[in-house]
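User: Structure please.
Assistant: Input sequence and predicted structure:
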Amino acid sequence: MKEKLILEIKTAMTEIVSQQQMELLNIVLLRSLDNLYITEIDTKIKCFKTYNLKLLSFFIASKKVEGCSDKSLKYYINTIEKLLQKINKSVIDISTNDLRTYLSDYQELKKSSRVTIDNMRRIFSSFFSWLEDEDYILKSPVRRIHKVKTGRLVKDTLSDEQLEVLRDTCTEIRDLAMIELLTSTGMRVGELVKINRADVDFHERQIVVFGKGNSEREVYFDARTKIHLRKYLEIRTDDNKALFVSLSKPNSRLSIGGVEMRLRILGKKAQIDKVHPHKFRRTLATMAIDKGMPIEQVQKLLGHMKIDTTMHYAMVNQTNVKNSHRKFIG
């Protein structure tokens, strides 16, 4: 490559410099380029990289139209971009073995859980299936990559005693109202921070929230939550329309991170491990099922599209299983 470059320079200078100057130029070029590695830019590589990103942008646009949240779209982009950068091929040429190798190497390098790897597989499946549907490729290479067996992890819920300890730990009426609302509704933290004061129907004890994909649903709260919410709103002196705001001025709307941090602090004070918004959601689902609420209604309550998701959230009390066995089987 160096020789080719030197020859091109000398050819361009033939009619400008003398023979003696040409010899000197040759020496200078050889010395200057001696320690350099020179390679030709592969325009073909540049072309397929541009093409890949173009198709990715089309795919993301289609997911946006379908109603995917910004958070989901960002996850799609990051996951697929990393794949394309690592494999370094046109999407047309990516094979099943390329994907298997990538997932295997990723799991080994990052020590990722099976759940993470299966989530990546699902994203790749969505992307390549879209490419197939849109006739960019003949067949999705993900078809032969089966679902990763993840097993089912039993995740902790909050006991009645722990909930009482958390309530006693609250020194701010806002925090108590927030805990009561999460406990009685099981709403997502992303739904909680979007609620405005005007959204709360105290008479019917219900709130219209906007869930994933901007889907709308009603959630319901109990009498105790109603009392604490009203007390909290009565002491508010700001004019922010948000239901939950920061304690200090300018009393801005609480963010997801703000809620999570506050719950961690309360959990630490109460000496309860891993207190976070999702734990209240799982607790409500488990409590509802244990008390006999039909799983279809729990699904509706939590705003799940698939009932399988609801089953993953709810942890059926083992004591109840034992009692039911004795009651129905003997």
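Residues 160-324 form a domain with the hpI Integrase; Chain A fold (CATH 1.10.443.10).
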